[in-house]
Amino acid sequence: MHQEPVLVTGDPKAISYVCANDDLFPRNEATKQVLQTVFPNSVFVQEGEEHRRQKKLVSGAFTYETRFEKMFTRKSSTLLSPPAVQELSDILYDLANQMVDQWKGELETSTDAEYIVNVQKSIQVLATDAISRSALAYSIKDSKGPVKDLLARLGDLEDNQLTVFLQLVLNKIPWLSKLPNPVTLRWFRFRAELGYIADDVWEKGVLNHAFHSRLLEAIGQDQRDIAIGQITAILFAGSETTANIIVETVHKLTVYPHIQDKLRKELTEFVKKQGMPIPYADLINPTALPYLDAVMKEALRCLASVPHLQRRAGVRTDIPLEFPIRLSNGKVVQEIHVEPGQDIFMPVRDGINTSPELWGPESKKFIPERWLDGTIPKIVETIQVPGHILTFGDGPKYCLGRAFAFAEFKIFLSTMLLNFEFLTPQSEDINKIIFHLSGPAVKPTVKGREKEGPALPLAIKLLS
C-alpha cells in the first residue's frame, strides 16, 4: 500500500493552520490508540464535536464563583481561569511549604556531609497532589495504603532501542498495538497505576461522599467509566508536563548558578521591601517580579516537556506557509499540498520553540534576559499563540491549564529558592544528568543508572 511521506514542518503559519483545523487534521490512529489505552473515554481521546462537548463538560465541571464574584456579580470562573487559579493559590502555597518543611526536617537530622534530594520525585508528587487537590478536592499525599506509593512510579516509562523501534512500527501499522508488546504493556501499566488513584477518588467522592468534586457531579454518578477516564486525564495533564518543566528549570539554575543567584536576589529583595511573603497577585505580575517572569518564559520556551505535536491529514488540502519554500523542481510556493492519511510532524522543543531562524543564533541557550532586553527577533511574532511559544499547543486542543501551570511554576520555584540553594552534589557528575523522552514527556535520568528511573539528585543548602 502506498504511504505518503511524512511532512515535518516548523513553519509558524502551517502549524497554526493544522492545529486550528482539528476536523481536517485529527490525531493519527497510533496516537489515538495510546490515548484510548491510558485515558479511555476522556477528552484526550475525542475529536471534533465530541472533543468540544467533553472539553466544555470538563471545564464547566470546575465552574464556581470566586469570592469577588459572589459579592458583586453573577459571573463564574472555571478552575483553569486566572481568577479561579488565584482562589486555588492557597493550596499551591500550602503544598510548596509542606515540601520545604519536609526537606528542612530531613536536612537537620541528616549526618551526611551534604544532603541530597531527588528533585524529580519530590516535584512529581507535589504537582500531582496540586492538581488532585485543586480539581478533585482529593489529597493523594495524605492517602493511605498503596495510592501514595504509586506516585514514586508514575511516568517511569523508560525508552530503549526496542521500544523506540516498536513505536515507529506502530505508527505505520496501528492495529499491531492490539497485540502484546513492550510499548503497549508499559502504557497499560501507566493506566493501571493512574487508574488506581482515579478509583480511590471515585470511591471516596461518589460512593462514600467523603468530599465534593464538581467533575464527578457534572459527569453523573452512574457513569463510572467516563469519570475514571476524565480523572486519569486530569491527573496526567495537570502534573506530568508542568512537573518536568519545573524539574529541568531547577537543573538549569544549578548548572548556571548566576541565574539562580540573580533570581533569588529579586525574590529576597521583594520580600524585604514588602515585609511579608510574596502575595499571589505580585507573584504573577510580570512587572512586580520581572526576572521570575523571564525565567518562566524561557523555561516554557526551551524546556518544553512534550517534544512535538503530530496530526494526520484527513482530506486532500493545501497548508499555507509563512515562509515560501523552493521545491525540488525549482518552483517557489507559499503552500504545501497534503494527501489524506499523510502524517504531519511539528517539532516543538527542538523545533519552533528554539529554531535559530526564528529565535536567533543563541536560540538553544537558556537565557532569561532575552525576555527583558529586547533582543527577541521581531519574526518571533509570526508564532501567533500566547507568548509566541507552542508549549501549550494551539487551536481547539490548546491546553486548558495554562494559567494553573503558570501559578504552579512561580509558587513552587519561588518557595524553593527563598529557602534553599541548589548545588551539584560532590558525589555526582552534573554531565551525567541526561534529559530525554521517557514515556510521554522529557525527564532526567542519571547516566549509568537508567534502571533506577527518572531522577535528578541535587544537593540543597538551607539559607539563613
From TrEMBL:
GO terms for cellular component: membrane. Its cofactor is heme. Pathway: Secondary metabolite biosynthesis; terpenoid biosynthesis. One of its GO terms (molecular function) is heme binding. InterPro entries: Cyt_P450, Cyt_P450_CS, Cyt_P450_E_grp-I, Cyt_P450_sf, Cytochrome_P450_monoxygenase. It is found in: Membrane. Heme binds at C399. Keywords: Heme, Iron, Membrane, Metal-binding, Monooxygenase, Oxidoreductase, Transmembrane, Transmembrane helix. Transmembrane segments: none annotated. It holds the Pfam family p450. Belongs to the cytochrome P450 family. This is Cytochrome P450. It comes from Psilocybe cyanescens.
